[in-house]
Specification:
The protein is mainly alpha-helical and 110 residues long. The chain has 5 helices and no strands.
Amino acid sequence: SIFWILSITKSNIITIEMPAIYIIGKEYSSLKRIYGIVILLSIITTAISEGLGFIEAQKTSKKKIWKVSLIICFFGVIVSKMGFSTLVKVLYPAIGFWGLIQMFYICRKE
């Protein structure tokens, strides 16, 4: 398992942004691309579901949905320039807080 590989490694994984990918690439180079693709797909599907959830909660016209979608995509491109650890440290709590606001908004509407 990944935890076992991380625990027996001789590398200093604390300073590495994505230690699991680093260790898999170092120990099992044939699996590095596959694991990277799996992580990339999970990030993409999470982003799409967050964006669609937000858009669906708005229940607005098609024209406004396109505007909101473009704003989300533009914001995503800008935010993608951060390092992964910074992105997780800053955006993970912010997106969680935003989710709470959405839940409040949805519950209040119904």
